[in-house]
Structure prediction request, 218 residues.
Amino acid sequence: AVKQGSSGDPQSNPRLRAVLDDAKAVNMPKDNVQRAIDRGLGKLPGQNIEEVTFEGFGPGKVAFIVEGVTDNKLRTLQEIKSLFEHSGGNLAGQGSVSYMFDRIGEIRVEGKGGSMEEEMLELIDLGADDVEDYLDQNIQEYLVYTEATNVAEVGNKITQAGYGVEQAEIVYKPNTMVEIKDKETAQKVLDFAGKLEELDDVQKVYANFDIQDNLINQ
Prediction:
């Protein structure tokens, strides 16, 4: 965020401000935060961090987009390529799967405890292009989608309306889904996604699989 925004000041770098909110939410030590900012500004010798994005097909022909940050792009490429190949899939070129995803803003919102229908309508009035509801530990929550450029503005409006904004970020949302119909493939897909997420350099993993709950719970 610091490198892309050319600033270590959260007041002038909205993306950094969002990242710092996430870091605070998980109680990241201030020293770690400052070290990351200094690294992004190039103040730490020998530590050049860059963002990387990889695309490919995993088990069941599921499309994956992997985002990461690394100080050694070749090392990260080799690790991710190896995982794809061992899964029976393959790492592909830029643009090979990204057309199956939309680059949009996603805001995770905790409800106020009122009617779900009324809260969803209110969120749309506050600027949401689309809203999905779900329960998290019996708490009503929502995924609010916006144009990528409107994330901060809509997030602020939602907060001012009394909702709790847990996270606001720009994501890849699949527009084409791959339905997984058998338990074996479902397990392979989930295992592969988990292995990608465990890599130190990987920050986000996006995929377009659709697995029915009954396959997971069998």
